[in-house]
Each structure stands twice: as C-alpha cells, then as structure tokens.
Design goal:
- This protein is an alpha/beta fold.
- The chain has 2 helices and 8 strands.
- The protein folds into 2 domains: about 50 residues, 2,3-Dihydroxybiphenyl 1,2-Dioxygenase, domain 1, CATH 3.10.180; about 50 residues, 2,3-Dihydroxybiphenyl 1,2-Dioxygenase, domain 1 (Roll).
- The strands form 2 sheets. The chain has a 4-stranded mixed sheet with strand order 1-4-3-2, covered by helices on one side. Strands 5-8-7-6 form a 4-stranded mixed sheet, with helices on one face.
- It is globular.
C-alpha cells in the first residue's frame, strides 16, 4: 500500500495564532505560513505527524470527533503550562477520569493523560 497520513488538519479563524499555541505546547516549529494555511512540524523527527491549520469562516459548534491525546511526564505541570499558553480545562461530560480534557484557544478539545 502506498497511502500514509500526511498532516492532521485543524480548521481555524486565526491559523497563525493557533499554530503558535501548538508550537509552544508540543515543541514544533512553523514550517509554512501563507496567511490562510500554517503548518507546524517537530524538528528533525519525520515520524511525528505535522499539524496544519487552515483558515475557515464557520464557527465550531460541537465537540471534536477526533482529538489529540497528549502523554506527559507530569500531568499537573503540563496542564499548568498549557493553561499559561492559552488552553483551558473543559467539561465534555467526562465525569471522574484520570485524564484532563482541555481546549486550545479556538476550542479544539484535547486530553492530557497521566504519565505513561
């Protein structure tokens, strides 16, 4: 088979701002910025899927159907750091779980797991 994932794409009102948040969160670098599309990649690691942020006009209205699960060394420290970057904790009905559900500056949910 010759098919492989190329990027994980996010709709965004402000692609640059959202890309900068995720660069800070994941240690990625911006590798493309044409105003309407901003791509970020992990430096020198071709095994990690790049993220692409594309400008859209429509609003996000429901919970994401796909999200990132992030595996930290220290969940509490990472949640605090992500909040300082602009993320917030959100309640999507998860109840009593070991992970923390958060949203990026444009409301895209992601989970911060316990240490793996």
């Amino acid at each position: 088979m010759s098919l492989r994932p190329y990027t994980l794409t996010f709709d965004a009102h402000n692609p640059r701002r959202l890309a900068e948040f995720w660069c800070g969160a994941l240690g990625y670098d911006i590798t493309l910025d044409n105003g309407d599309e901003v791509a970020i990649e992990k430096p020198a690691d071709a095994r990690v899927l790049p993220l692409l942020f594309i400008r859209v006009a429509d609003e996000k209205v429901v919970k994401n159907r796909v999200h990132l699960d992030l595996a930290p060394d220290d969940q509490g420290a990472e949640v605090k750091r992500l909040k300082a970057l602009g993320a917030r904790e959100v309640d999507i009905g998860q109840r009593d779980v070991s992970w923390v559900v958060m949203a990026d500056p444009e409301g895209n949910e992601f989970c911060v797991l316990t240490a793996r």
